[in-house]
Amino acid sequence: MSTYAAPLRDMQFAIAGFAGLEGIAALPGCGEVNAELVEVVLTEAGKFAQGVLDPLNRVGDVEGARWQDGVVTAPPGFAEAYRRFTEGGWNGIGADPAYGGQGLPHCLSMPLQEMWNSANMAFCLCPMLTTGVQEALLHHGSQDLLDRYMARLVSGEWSGTMNLTEPQAGSDLSAVRSSATPEGDHYRIRGTKIYITWGEHDMAANIVHLVLARLPDAPEGVKGISLFVVPKFLPDAEGKPGARNDVRCVSIENKLGIHGSPTCVLAYGDGPGAIGYLVGEPHRGLEYMFTMMNHARLGVGMEGIALAERAYQHALEYARTRVQGRAIGQRSGDRVTIIHHPDVRRMLLTMKAQTEAMRALGYFAAGQLDRARRHSDAAQRARHQARLDLLTPVVKGWCTETAVEVASLGVQVHGGMGFIEETGAAQYLRDARISTIYEGTTGIQANDLIGRKVGAEKGETAFALIAEMRQLDAPLAAAGPACEAQRQALGAAVTALERATQWLVDHYRARPEAAAAVAVPYLKLFGAVAGGWLMARASLLAAQQLDQPGADRAFLKAKQATARFYLEHLLPQAAAHADTVTGGADAVLALDPAAF
Questions:
Q1: Active-site pick, 135, 166, 439, 498
Q2: Which residues, 6+ apart, have CB-to-CB distance to 481 below 8 Å?
């Protein structure tokens, strides 16, 4: 088994170059954020990820979480790791200082999420969801709810969950049936929720559930859903966990991966009804929950990046140590490690290039989030928010789909040994598979992209970003013949994206079914081209830094080579996605459902 090592150099490169650290440092509340702070925080987080979380990853996969008579026990070592995680202040790294958080920008907190997920995704899901609950309450909760719950959620003393799905509803939240009956200053919640990650466990003193339910007078559909805080234990007069609420875990799921993370079925109201407290106004629950979901979607995108990085590291170590065959063209002499074989190098470069492109896009989105939240100018906040809204489904959908491809290549690098559980390569593929489903499947992300983010605004934000991508043509041309093939590849890919975007704008309202039929290819196209744009920027940045005193020449040369591989080897596939978008809808719709 390999040992995870946080890719600190590439993270710092991406934070500075793509999130835009210098610009973020000038934002209100970020005056102390600089390259030195980033290095210190990343280094310490990397030590925790490697020394504490990574050794438990295999334990969690093999042992799994356990359920017995409604009690869920985390895998061995998880509770102690969680205690150390919260005592170290990691749970509140980006949280509001008013509630005990450190208030660091997302361009720094999201790379930490990458580390935690690379080291142990099953563990990381617990604090990630807790952060999402904080987001929802901070934006929509009453002062009373904030006073009762926020400080303990920020510290990690209490964890949080998101309760949307029900057995009959799935992704169709308009079919939610859980009920909320008024009773004095609270409500009685009854119903069943499924797929609740870390919905019951023994790591935190209390669990704060955010639950979607309907009031007695609620209208049908999504407009009739309200949001409630339902704690596992009702806080007493001193704010400590008091009486047990009427919510219990009736089972946990037997899953393909992330065995260390309990996925729970929660029953509310088997007795008198679970006590819950309304968040915000009635019937606006889904709107409020989307605050948490959009934050979580970026977090799930980081899961994809993280698992791709971990699968790559694991495959790289195996390729460096596995001796098999002679070098191509050699008929005698010593056998070599498989990293010397060209096709293994192709697979490793594919894994490396895709992971670095995903990281660049994820950190770029984090920088947009910081500017949307903190910029002093309202117009600038709105511009960055629009770009963040556009990129969120791309980061979530493209990064997770690509992570599955990368993890699958990791198995392939191992050959037959990759199919054997003991080597560990299969776990990353199994764990990555859920990331394309979490917080809305890839199809849901793609429909959001072509609908709310492109079709509804006639491509305004998308075309503005495409125009910015085109501005890189001149610097690439100035870089000379060495970058000419990359310049041509990027130019063709940006043109393909522009063509596909225009097709969607022209057809979204006139032929919505046709637009939906090619939504996923469009999402993949957008991700691949945005990744290519940022990799081209990375190549130019690396060239500039090579001339600086004390430059890390090995890293920068590798960055240039990896960017070249992405642009010349992977990015040309964008044209095929664009052709599918502009010409493939009718083929999807040609076969009648009855004929399948």
A1: 439
A2: none
